[in-house]
Amino acid sequence: MPAQTIRLSFDRPTGNFWVDTGLVVLLRNFGEGEHAVEDVLNWLQSQLLRRTGNKGEYYDRQTGEIRPYHKVSWVKPTDLFIKVISPIPKIAIEGKEYFIRPPDPKFNLDLKPNKKPGNCDLCGEEALLADAAMWIYPFVVDPAKFSNFYSGAKRGLRFCARCALGGVAGYLGWLWKAHRRDALHLFIFHSTLREMERLHREVLDPLRASGTESGSAPVMFAGSYESETTLGLLLALFKYARDSDTLPEAGRQFLTEILGAADRPPPPITLYVISGTPAQAFQTKALREFSKLQRLFRLYKRWIDLLVKLGVDNPSHQIGVVFSQFMARQGQRTESIWRDRIAAAILDFGDPTPFVEQFLFDVHARPLYRGTIEVLNTYIQEVFNMDDKFQSALAGFGHSLGREAHKQSEMGLLYALRNAKNPEAFYRVLNDAQFRLQVSIPEAVLRIEKGERIAGVPWGRVKTLLSIYAMNAYLWKGDTKTEAIPSTQEN
Ligand SMILES: [Zn+2]
Q1: Averaged over 301-329, what is the pLDDT?
Q2: Ligand 1 centroid to residue 480 C-alpha, Å
Q3: 90 CA to middle of ligand 1, Å?
Q4: Which of 240, 276, 345, 453 could be 284's S-S partner, Cβ–Cβ 3.0 to 4.6 Å?
Q5: pLDDT for the residue numbered 488
Q6: Strand, coil or helix: what is 64?
């Protein structure tokens, strides 16, 4: 029987982010054309296993000696998915148990062409099919993303050899980031294999962290939650696209090009993020798709321009600092749920201000880092089309409110403002502030319109922004280390 082969080609993507990532890995190593399944499988085994540096002992039955062997294990992140190693019989020698040969972990891919041909559940092509073991292919069973497979999953999935090997090769291509027991798996997907190959070769390879236990993804920051780490990855990529010496110039330009491309149609790159808990079988907790990377990159560039105008030396770094700050020590650990909520809002172009407000009032009474208010203001203008004149008036008013409240030790007023649940309560607090602090309320803030809007903005958002501006100014005045942590309120 002739050796079973697979045909690799840049022109045959499957459209599945995970298998296509693996096909890029295979294309980079083997090139286009026909390749023996055996060769590909052997190469994958050699790449996915590594010596741990530890030695074990086994009993050599031929010589009757106890001999050392190098322990091997799956490389990360493969070991988060694959725990199984082939069982080797043991023998007891003088009360101690020894393997009768060195353990030799292997994939048990049943790719032998002894099955009937059929259509591959992934690429749809007619071929000899292999059953997919769930522990090797953890990402195909998400019901929302793979509904067509899910119905098929009852009878078990069947893949052609190309997709099966591509799926395994995916382990070598995707980025991951670990935090304590959990890990996030990040796929930067391009719909054409050639472009994705270039992305891996010119951009991701130079940026990929290797040999670390905490992941291969380059990030500005990372934590326990998926949105914060996803934003941490995107900010790192944006930084490398904009001003990087780390990337070769061609790679930097390519990254800028795909991030700067038009949004639609179709978006050239998509980020897929999978979180889950490693166990005997990987449990997928969430699979999320981010396709608005171009819009985020435009926003990022506006932030950079703004910080440059403010005279910030290293603006990309400062943007990382601005988002990093929303965490706090709680007992023995650092809690970053606020950073995650803010990141989640930004990744979806939603409203992050309630979480900033909550952080400032309830979690960490410290002035916001330099640039935070400006970054937030730009975001609100860009995403909610807030009028910049109104925003300046509101910011100025918030600043006076906070400064006067500090002078007269009226922090309670700021909490009353934060707690206002309707426009009536909001105006009551403002009247009170006007009377007690001698501050005048800008005209525009007093005009409430249809639908409880103020200058076209829902009153609640106006209240939240005002609370943030005021509390930040209050804390700035109360901080003795203002030189070390300058607030933006003193421009
Ligand atoms: Zn296939």
Answers
A1: 95
A2: 64
A3: 39
A4: 276
A5: 37
A6: coil
Structural domain spans, the chain? 5-171, 179-321, 351-490
Q: Where are the beta strands (DSSP E) in 3-120?
A: 5-8, 33-36, 49-60, 65-74, 90-93, 96-99, 117-119
CA of 49 to the centre of ligand 1 (A): 25
To 10 degrees, the CA torsion angle through 127, 133, 134, 135?
-130
Predicted confidence (pLDDT) per residue in 27-72, tens digit:
999 999 999 998 999 999 899 988 888 999 999 989 999 999 998 8
Q: How far is the CA of 98 from the centre of ligand 1 (A)?
A: 42
* Cα of 28 from ligand 1 centre, angstroms: 19
Q: What is the distance in A from the centroid of ligand 1 to the CA of 126?
A: 8
CA of 361 to the centre of ligand 1 (A): 54
Instruction: State the distance from the centre of ligand 1 to the C-alpha of 19, rounded, in angstroms.
Output: 9
Q: Residue 33 pairs with which residues in a beta bridge?
A: 8
Provide the whole-model pTM: 0.88
Query: What was the pLDDT predicted at 122?
Result: 83
User: At a CB cut-off of 8 Å and minimum separation 6, what does 191 contact?
Assistant: 13, 15, 266, 268, 270
pLDDT in tens, 164-211: 899 889 999 999 998 877 789 999 999 899 999 999 999 999 999 877
Q: Bridge-partner residues for 187, per DSSP?
A: 272
The pair of three-digit structure tokens given for residue 10, joined into one six-digit string: 């840049």
- Alpha carbon distances (Å) from 302 to 108, 286, 295, 296, 317: 51, 31, 11, 10, 15
Q: What band does 282 get if pLDDT is binned at 50, 70 and 90?
A: low
Residues 6+ apart with CB under 8 A from 57: 66, 67, 68, 69, 98
